[in-house]
């Protein structure tokens, strides 16, 4: 059985780890590898390597840093197909979707290649007589990233390119469910010429995460994962005086107005709900049909859901793969059962789906549940599977109120031809990322990504300008160069401009 190791100080290592976790092929249900689970001493070794590397990396010129980023970008671009294949093998999503994920990660690397421009400071001449003022941004030190299973390529890439470009050194704790890709990333960094110790990987579980949260030499933590863990990371990391951004779970609503083109809407809703088997933090999991839109929408939507081809991710004819583990599958099936028990109507049923030749795979078919109300478990839980709930609202304002009553605020979308209604929606919803006739409004790398309410703990969103702000801190200098014989009378009063 293949064993996936850590990457510390520029090489693969087992460190002190003896515990392991299984890595499955979700399409067959078979274990394909084991991953080492780090002890606190392994985390300490990685942080120490990163601490040492920071001394020199933080002093490397911006243009040299940019040249290493360009080399890394070239390797990632060249190996996109290989990276996508590893994502599919361990996560299960179809290969074309995995390629899309790699591409979205690559775009953050490309953004970070512009670091000399992104880190430009500000200068004000003559703020007082013969006094100038300027500001510039410094790196933080060792920063850590803790990432979820659902985007093993993209989510870590939301963090490390910008962190490293800003002059920090990085320790990644990827998901233990699909960890192989992170080792490939470490190897590409080494090949691109990044000095040893600047990028490290510790594989593991809560033991590794807690060691990062408590380590005195970790200056900042970026987390992406479920809301209960995000809340915990934010509280414990902040109590330890670290800078923390912790992105959590989601329940993303799309509202559909009666004037929308229901063919277009159904196509895009099905793609947004069932793409990646619903295991996206920006997946649409609740549709709110406004006014008379409901019954007509459901007819077309059900057809689209039934037409999705489910199969192993490496089969090019598959549009949707399995979910990540048997436990995830059973949890999703249980929630569909609960929905039915609580009075909802399952109009397309993905339970009991078997894929010929892959009977042991972790498959759930696309599922549509109508007549869902906000008190039902299918609505109050983040299902994180290929399940789309349909709710009804009388007016756009009722739909906005429904969304705002939900504790999450990651993404949302409106489908309409009415610009005024779309504007009211956009301004009224308490949600961080909004699509207008765009169901999965994931911001590009040069904007920042982040939700509101229980979908993000901390102040700054991830990547884009807020990513640069997160991974650097500002210094403001006020400077004066008096002439040798200049009168320098000082006053005990608060300094003011003269
Ligand atoms: P998860 O919270 O179970 O795990 C995320 C990370 O936390 C992993 O590295 C895991 O090892 C670690 N972890 C798990 N339990 C822990 C514990 N008790 N203590 C300390 N660390 C722990 O999430 P997941 O199942 O891997 O990913 C799916 C979740 O991530 C969904 O809720 C999804 O919405 C969310 N997500 C959010 C975003 C976003 O941008 N907001 C993006 C992707 C995924």
Shape: globular
Low-confidence stretches: none
Overall pLDDT metric: 97
Ligand identities: nicotinamide-adenine-dinucleotide
The CATH homologous superfamily of the largest domain is called Aldehyde Dehydrogenase, Chain A, domain 1
CA-based gyration radius: 25 Å
Largest sheet: 7 strands, mixed
The CATH class of the largest domain is Alpha Beta
Report the span from N to C terminus: 74 Å
Structural class: alpha/beta
If you consult CATH, what is the topology of the largest domain?
A: Aldehyde Dehydrogenase, Chain A, domain 1
Strand content: 15-25%
The residue fraction in helices comes out at: 25-40%
Report what the structure shows.
- It is a single chain.
- By secondary structure, the protein is of the alpha/beta class.
- It is built from 16 helices and 23 strands.
- Strands 15-16-17-14-13-19-20 form a seven-stranded mixed beta sheet, with helices on both faces.
- It is globular, with a radius of gyration of 25 Å.
- The mean pLDDT is 97.
- Nicotinamide-adenine-dinucleotide is lined by residues 146-151, 155, 173, 175-176, 205-206, 209, 224-226, 229, 247-250, 281, 382, 384, 410, 451, 455.
Briefly summarize what is shown.
The chain is α/β, with parallel strands linked by helices. The chain contains 16 helices and 23 strands. The longest helix is centred in the first third of the chain and has 18 residues, at 40-57.
